[in-house]
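tool_call predict_complex ligand=MU-OXO-diiron
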Amino acid sequence: MTITSDIKYIGVNDRNIDLFEGQYIVPNGIAYNSYAIIDEKIAIMDSVDANFKDEWLSNIKTALDGRNPDYLVVQHMEPDHSANIISFVEAYPEAKIVSSKKSFEMMKNFFGTDFSDKQVVVGEGDTLSLGKHNLTFVTAPMVHWPEVIVTYDSTDKVLFSADGFGKFGALDVKEDWACEARRYYIGIVGKYGMQVQALLKKASGLDINIICPLHGPVLTENLGYYLDLYNTWSSYQPEEEGVVIAYTSVYGNTKKAVIKLKERLEANGCPKVTVNDLARCDMAEAVEDAFRYSKIVLATTTYNADIFPFMREFINHLTERGFKNRTVAFIENGSWTPMAVKVMKGMLEKSVNLSYAENEVKILSALNEDSEKQLDALAKELCN
Ligand code: FEO
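tool_result ok
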């Protein structure tokens, strides 16, 4: 794939992966992107996952048409991109490795060597000329590891954005960008909104025509759309007005309340209502929804004087990613000493700027007249 006359795609599609980063299901696989900038000197931008050594080296060979690369630029040391540094060095022993100081320290830990005879250490604002193409390196700590750099090619106006603007899904599949980019962003980079904001600020000073991320498609048009979404996500603002109901139910009584609440929210004109059964859905999708919409209802049972485990896990995912700026409502169920609301509120004390619905729903085993009225009141309040 040709990106510009001098920049070629040399990445790979992984359709066999079971869990990305050991936890995310990726029904359409994932791409590990890598690029070759072909000039008087040749730079390879990042390597790929360990399982794709031969395919990647073959892609380099084909793209370079008999020439050898001069540099391997390592923007990020997570193994989905760095695993083949060693195989690159074996194939091209004359090439230099361009990376941040922290990356070389990580290489020592990963590979037992920091390639001291090949190092070109770069930091904020450093440049590398390939001939016609001038690369400027921009530090992007915690997007999504501390050593990350991104690279701007001022000749073709390309931003190589590391994990930023990445997405789940291999490149041989056509699917909506935002859906799988959001699940990727919230799950993987969501905790680091402040750092993403800092990177966006730096990027706003650059004239960018093309974004080349390490996962997902190369972005060539309507870049404002992607930049706006990243700004919304990284500033923890809701993307859409709507209510997401996240619940667990042991015998179906809490589920009945959730279904009734959904019906009443819709009857009251709520623009969008989404329901996730936390024991059965993809947890990353539920977490994505929580960050996407403006309001959330947490419905769960009291369990071992605590809450049902899937709800505990879910709330932990929210608070560790800096969940804020949302309205939260509660439905609790308990057959003898209901205390789920107290536990959930306690867990959410780690979050800031949440507003709580005045109406709560308390179920004592099964819905009754009182709890039905509470559901009505909550539906009205959330739709106002
Ligand atoms: Fe795609 Fe943070 O690695």
